[in-house]
Specification:
Chain B: This is Extracellular solute-binding protein. The structure holds 2 protein chains of 2 kinds. Chain A is an all-alpha fold. In chain A, 69% of the residues lie in helices and 1% in strands. In chain B, α15 crosses α16 and α18 packs antiparallel against α19. The chains are: A mainly alpha, B alpha+beta.
């Protein structure tokens, strides 16, 4: 009784705040939670004649195609591997560049650099794929034309799967790191000047100031970005892989990720069940991962955890 | 506390940026659950107020005003709103209905098409073809059976389309689509640069041997031109076209099965057979000789474009209409160049006119206004006003008729509605059709092919892959990974490569799929006689 009273009282006390929260709650309910009913599609045989809950329940049959080709492990590893590489490299690179840029005093130079690094973010992968093809094309590509000018043997880049691990990562960095750099740059601006002045008086040089003040202060931002990224670690960069590799089966051993695999497998099939099954697999994996990492972070430092 | 609020502002900015980053990543988490769209009030089957219907010629209840949702693939023409307004004026008078023309664009059209049909959206008319999986969708019950509705809601249309066409589009005994009646050929033929061929005195490519001689000649005399353009879709552009010509197959069957046109019951596995090995070796030879690029699988430019701009000198197979448009495109920039064409049918002795399934319009199961939709579609096909307007635009504004030929006003950029801009292939009416003078060329090819025409016996086949869809999806992957490089000639040892492919395909369940496919095919043949 007393407890219930407490809840009612609490609700009443914060009624204005709660009212203000309502639109957000509704938004999430409608856009993020309600569609989750669709997960059930993964377990039924899709049929145009019935609504979702009247369709035949088929258990895990829809998931079968994922392991039927014996590629699930390879795909999962590829997907995670690339995402970890993206995550680590993008963050390291963007933190480094953000710190460097923040130390630069010339306003004009700083702005130009920032823009130049940020611009690739707006280039579509479709366009990038055309550029890349013109660079590496065996017969008329820029690379081979230059190589032949110097009398070297032309290289067939498109038949060397190992090389593409590097390329894919490079393209991703080129396109995306400017964006997260701006995020870091913004949080660096938020660090109070007083720390730096105090350190300066104590005789710390520019590297010491960056290493002992800026980097630790960026930790919160980094952890948040990390957790967000981990949640979608099973969701590959579909556009990037699809556009760069396309139909070239020679490169699949190192460049095939879950998203491209699912796309290829279901392109000609219209089965809702199988498509949903693939999505559910990715989501469950991502969910588990984010829960674990969050728990670990909470152990280490409660303030940094997401929840 | 200026410092503090500044810090807060910065933190906010960081969060907003981080959130947009997150939002950008999570764009594809829609569970596809738009089901249960609310019932529209304009249910044509409503028993109320049927008195007004008696004087209507269509014999359906049009007492309530409805809006029809019309879906077509591709990009909407610029002047579509004007056309739509004019059509609506007429439709409102004739049928008490208005129509909304929706276009999917070509980007991810297959995904959108799938979603339109499976999420219970309000769609009254939708385009169908064998390449949009009409047969499979029908089999799964995505469309409304029309045989009872047709005589009642669209008697004129029912009369207009010949009975054998209605029979040809039947799936499991039901009519699910209204086929187009315009007869054309979309069979392939060799395309080559006639001016170069004459210049170097090379043979006309009429079979594989002469084609190879032509390619060798081009390679030798014009080293900067790629002798033959294939493109990234190598399965269709190279293998299917080659099979169509060289093995005279009944149609592009799935899962590596082939059956000759002359003896369609003799269905065998092409994959892994000696013939397959022989053909792959041919492709390898072409690649080794440099007839097509080492990186054909990553090609980003269309083959027709390459031909038109002079970077390639031949195509293995293209259909007459597309050949003609490539030729016109080329002529507009390089008037002194020329393209030659030789339909496979002339060498092989038979050509199949397009199957009625190739272009059609169906009514999805979820449609609330099936009768009205059908009546409207009847108008689109049989009423000259509707038909001309939706095929060619406004006369005098978008086009003029000169000596019976179609003539565009202005050019493709300034004209808001070019010929057949609504992609109206399905509602073409041969009686009203207008052609550009250059189309005479195509007509000539068609009339040649008419002499050797034989019916298409493949396209009516509706495969049901419910039993093996997991294997089917897995095979799709194996084919891309192991067979594509083989076809592109990028595997040094063809025999070993083929063995690996077969091993992987068998693992993915090839035998089961082929067995089931064969059974269905034979059953289909038995049913059709």
């Amino acid at each position: 009784m007393l407890r219930k009273n407490g809840v009612v009282k609490e609700l009443y006390k914060n009624r204005i705040l709660l009212l203000m929260l309502l639109p957000t709650l509704l938004y999430f309910l409608i856009n993020n939670y309600l569609p989750m009913i669709g997960i059930y599609y993964a377990f039924v045989q899709f049929d145009f004649n019935y609504n979702l809950f009247k369709m035949d329940f088929v258990g895990l049959q829809n998931f079968e195609f994922l392991w039927k080709s014996g590629k699930l492990t390879e795909l999962t590893l590829n997907t995670i591997g690339y995402n970890i590489a993206f995550l680590v490299l993008v963050n390291v690179l963007s933190i480094t560049v953000a710190v460097l840029l923040s130390e630069i005093k010339g306003k004009w130079f700083k702005k130009v650099t920032q823009s130049v690094l940020f611009l690739p973010y707006f280039v579509s992968f479709v366009i990038l794929s055309v550029i890349v093809f013109n660079l590496f094309n065996y017969e008329q590509g820029v690379l081979n034309t230059v190589l032949q000018q110097f009398g070297a043997e032309p290289v067939d880049v498109y038949s060397k799967p190992k090389l593409w691990i590097l390329f894919i990562i490079l393209f991703y960095l080129w396109k995306n790191f400017g964006y997260s750099m701006v995020i870091y740059l913004a949080s660096i601006t938020g660090i109070s000047e007083e720390y730096y002045e105090a350190a300066k008086i104590d005789g710390a040089n520019i590297f010491q100031r960056a290493w002992h003040i800026t980097v630790p202060m960026l930790k919160t931002t980094f952890v948040i970005l990390l957790l967000f990224a981990l949640g979608s670690i099973m969701k590959g960069q579909f556009d990037l892989f699809y556009q760069m590799v396309g139909n070239n089966g020679l490169l699949y051993s190192t460049t095939d990720i879950l998203d491209t695999y699912v796309y290829r497998s279901l392109r000609v099939t219209f089965d809702m069940g199988m498509a949903t099954a693939a999505g559910v697999y990715q989501s469950i994996f991502g969910f588990t991962l984010i829960m674990i990492v969050n728990a670990v972070i909470r152990r280490i430092n409660k303030d940094y955890a997401l929840f | 506390m200026i410092g503090k609020s500044k810090k807060m502002a910065c933190l906010m900015l960081v969060f907003v940026l981080a959130l947009t980053l997150l939002a950008a990543c999570s764009g594809n988490n829609n569970g596809g659950n738009n089901g249960g769209s609310t019932a529209e009030p304009g249910d044509s089957a409503s028993p109320s107020a049927s008195a007004a219907a008696t004087e209507e010629p269509t014999g359906i209840d049009t007492s309530k005003k409805v809006e029809l949702q019309f879906y077509m693939l591709g990009n909407a023409p610029k002047d579509l709103p004007k056309i739509e307004a004019e059509i609506n004026k007429m439709a409102l008078e004739d049928l008490n209905a208005t129509v909304k023309f929706n276009y999917t664009t070509w980007t991810d059209w297959d995904q959108k098409y799938k979603l339109l049909l499976s999420t219970g959206q309000d769609v009254d008319l939708i385009f169908t073809a064998e390449w949009t999986q009409y047969q499979q969708y029908s089999k799964k019950g995505a469309f409304l059976p029309l045989e009872e509705l047709l005589p009642q809601a669209a008697p004129k249309l029912y009369e207009f389309v010949p009975q054998d066409m209605w029979d040809a589009v039947k799936i499991d005994g039901h009519i699910y689509t209204v086929p187009a009646t315009y007869k054309e050929y979309v069979t392939n033929g060799f395309v080559w640069r006639e001016d170069l061929r004459a210049k170097y005195n090379l043979p006309k490519p009429v079979d594989i041997k002469t084609l190879e001689e032509y390619l060798a000649g081009i390679k030798q005399n014009e080293p900067t031109i790629q002798p033959i353009a294939i493109g990234a879709g190598i399965d269709m552009a190279l293998s299917d076209a080659y099979l169509e010509f060289y093995r005279k197959v009944v149609g592009p069957m799935s899962y590596g099965m082939i059956a000759p046109y002359e003896d369609p019951a003799n269905i065998t596995s092409y994959w892994g057979s000696p013939e397959h090995l022989e053909d792959l070796k041919t492709f390898k030879r072409w690649a080794d000789n440099g007839y097509f690029s080492k990186n054909e699988l990553n090609e980003t430019e269309g083959s027709q474009d390459k031909l038109a701009n002079g970077t390639a000198a031949a195509m293995l197979g293209d259909n007459p209409t597309r050949y003609n448009s490539t030729l016109n495109k080329m002529k507009s920039v390089h008037p002194d160049w020329d393209l030659g064409y030789h339909p496979f049918g002339l060498t092989n002795g038979f050509a199949t006119p397009v199957h009625p399934i190739h272009n059609g319009f169906a009514i999805p199961k979820n449609s609330k206004n099936a009768e009205r939709a059908l009546a409207f579609y009847e108008k689109m096909v049989t009423d000259k006003r509707y038909n001309l307007l939706t095929q060619y635009g406004f006369e005098g504004v978008n086009y003029t008729v000169e000596n019976g030929y179609y003539k565009m006003v202005g050019d493709a950029n300034s004209n808001g509605f070019v010929r057949e801009a609504m992609n109206g292939w399905a509602w073409r009416n041969p009686e009203f059709m207008l052609f550009e003078p250059s189309y005479d060329n195509v007509e000539k090819i068609f009339s040649e092919l008419d002499k050797v025409q034989k019916p298409d016996i493949y396209t009516g086949f509706a495969e049901d892959y419910t039993e093996y869809q997991a294997e089917r999806a897995a095979l799709e992957q194996v084919e891309k990974q192991y067979l594509f490089p083989l076809m592109a000639g990028q595997v040094a040892d063809v025999e070993a490569g083929l063995a690996t492919f077969m091993e992987k395909a068998k693992q993915a369940g090839l035998d089961k799929v082929q067995e089931a496919y064969k059974k269905q095919w034979l059953a289909y043949l038995a049913e059709r006689g």
